Sequence to fold (48 residues):
Amino acid sequence: MIQENLLLIAIAVFVIMTIGLVLTVLEFKHGEIKRQDGEEIPNKYPGR
Fold:
């Protein structure tokens, strides 16, 4: 009985992680880039 419950929990966790991975890939592929090309960002650690 416990093994069946653990299997169901493992499958549920795997499905949730897969959904998160797919959403992350879609976000990086289609997400809007926040930084503009002309914007100068000061270097916090010069020389690196």
In short: The radius of gyration is 21 Å. The helical segments are 2-30. Residues 1-28 form one domain.
